[in-house]
Structure prediction request, 225 residues.
Amino acid sequence: SYELTQPPSVSVSPGQTARITCSGDALPKKYAYWYQQKSGQAPVLVIYEDSKRPSGIPERFSGSSSGTMATLTISGAQVEDEADYYCYSTDSSGNYVFGTGTKVTVL
Amino acid sequence: EVQLVQSGAEVKKPGESLKISCKGSGYSFTSYWIGWVRQMPGKGLEWMGIIYPGDSDTRYSPSFQGQVTISADKSISTAYLQWSSLKASDTAMYYCAKIAAAGGMDVWGQGTTVTVSS
Prediction:
């Protein structure tokens, strides 16, 4: 089955830049989406169609995609950005799949 | 306000059946896909399947095909996820989410906790 691979954890100091990668063979042809999930809460969409930001999402969140890798960047990370982040995309058959998840620690 | 409100927590025994719900409001319920997502305790998100309430077109993840049934009643703007025979391994949080035209899940329900234990 199709897999989207993310690093298990990323640590960043407040105000620094965090980059979370998502690797998948179909990403050259399929959009990536990114979700933030804070502890005990439902996920929130932070990036759609590789690089677009929904209304209400801070500008410090940005996305990009090149080849088989999509990247979520948090520029000037804040303590409140500490959460689990998941990428999301489709395989060639149209089945959606979430990435393995990355725990972002801001300290 | 666009929102999805899910039914409350459930505690069931193995072998029992269960149907949980997700009621949409504030938007045209029949015009957007609804997805279901599982999150087992301490684990990541898993895509289970989606339904288009307008015509009940349904698609399942291969991992969940045959294990659950997704349905919708457009007359009351409600989607459902059901099991005919629960297992302990079905213990998880289940989320419904509206799928935006651009493809991402832009509005999420609050989640329904399902606990299956003898």
In short: The two ends of chain A are 36 Å apart (CA to CA). The CA atoms of residues 84 and 103 of chain A lie 4 Å apart.
